[in-house]
Amino acid sequence: MNFLAHIYLSGDNDLMKIGNFMADGIHGKYFDNFHLDIQKGIILHRAIDTFTDSHPIFRQSTKRLHANYHHYSGIIVDIFYDHFLSKNWSNYSDEKLEDYSERFYQSLRDNYNDLTPKTQKMMPYMIDHNWLVSYQTIEGIERVLGRMDTRMKYDSNMRFSVAELKTYYPEFEQEFTSFFDFLITFTKQKTTLL
Known about the structure:
Number of helices: 11
Largest sheet: none
Number of strands: 0
Oligomer: single chain
Structural class: mainly alpha
Order of helices and strands: HHHHHHHHHHH
Shape: globular
Strand content: under 5%
Distance between the termini: 20 Å
Helix content: over 70%
């Protein structure tokens, strides 16, 4: 799962959303210098990633990409799944995605001092380019994958995976829809234990 899904799965707690959002940049198990709700978000993020990476439906999606993108397949499917969440947002929330995204951006501004330096640096780009809403279009996904390509140590060619997204669009969308129901259930159970 990518940014939008991680934020959405955090529920209504802004600090949990922030922890879940920036967890990829926090390594190891020593993160107790953060607010307790941010810590919960980090823990939830890791549980979501573990559940996702081992789930047969997610693995079915990655298998379709593996020949061309190898170990980047999981990253690509994370982005694809955020596209389908964004595109079908009204199935998951009564709030418009534009309003939901703006509220999240505002919570980043309001809690700026609690963000990691990496997140503080990334935040203006995310807000200026409205990443969460841009996931709704294939062009937006292509831009995201292109940006990610430039940050990889090796040439990942992820930007070209939009071709597979277009070719297998119904299959990816069906897999997302089925998988996300399982993930929502898992996340609700996990959240009650935090």
